[in-house]
From TrEMBL:
Residues 1-171 form the SIS domain. This is SIS domain-containing protein. One of its GO terms (biological process) is carbohydrate derivative metabolic process. It holds the Pfam family SIS_2. One of its GO terms (molecular function) is carbohydrate derivative binding. It comes from marine sediment metagenome. InterPro entries: GmhA/DiaA, SIS_dom, SIS_dom_sf, SIS_GmhA/DiaA_subfam.
């Protein structure tokens, strides 16, 4: 975020929900109020300027149902996240791939595209890290193997990271 990048997030099932949840924590106040100041208050006026909050750009790649279904029908559903990363990602952005096993093929493909674009890559997985861990610049492996337990441990990880980012950019 220091250089103005955007965070893209992807995952399947419960991990897709985590991607959506995490993006929500970044796009509005998490623990702290993020009031707009200066030029934004002037440009937006008092009604909008006092209701909107500072945001960290985050896009969950799970929110494109028309593209996802069309691409799955016309090309291959395993490549939907990869196509979205290719279309939306830029050098200086980052991709977080979330998978309890680290082996979600569509997330692995997205991480490969992100690396080719010069994006930063982060894997949030279970203990083994799976195929994703060696592809990621940063691999966060929670100490569990069972899907439900891994998902439970992912929540405090991304809440902590959200809090750290909020403190860095809005304190």
């Amino acid at each position: 975020y220091c250089s103005g990048g955007t965070l893209l997030l992807c995952g399947n099932g419960g991990s897709a929900s985590d991607a959506e949840h995490w993006a929500g924590e970044l796009l509005k106040g998490f623990r702290r109020n993020r009031p707009l100041t200066g030029q934004w208050l002037e440009r937006l006026g008092p009604e909008l300027g006092t209701k909107l909050q500072g945001a960290l750009p985050a896009i969950p790649l799970t929110g494109f149902p028309a593209l996802s279904s069309a691409y799955g029908n016309d090309v291959d559903s395993d490549y939907v996240f990869a196509q979205l990363v290719f279309g939306l990602g830029r050098a200086g952005d980052a991709l977080v791939g979330i998978s309890t096993s680290g082996g979600a093929g569509n997330v692995v493909l997205a991480m490969k595209v992100a690396a080719a674009l010069g994006m930063r890559t982060v894997a949030l997985t279970g203990r083994s890290g799976g195929e994703m861990a060696p592809l990621a610049e940063v691999s966060i492996r929670v100490p569990a193997d069972e899907t439900d337990r891994v998902q439970e441990l992912h929540l405090p990880v991304y809440h902590t990271l959200s809090l750290m980012l909020e403190e860095e950019f809005f304190a």
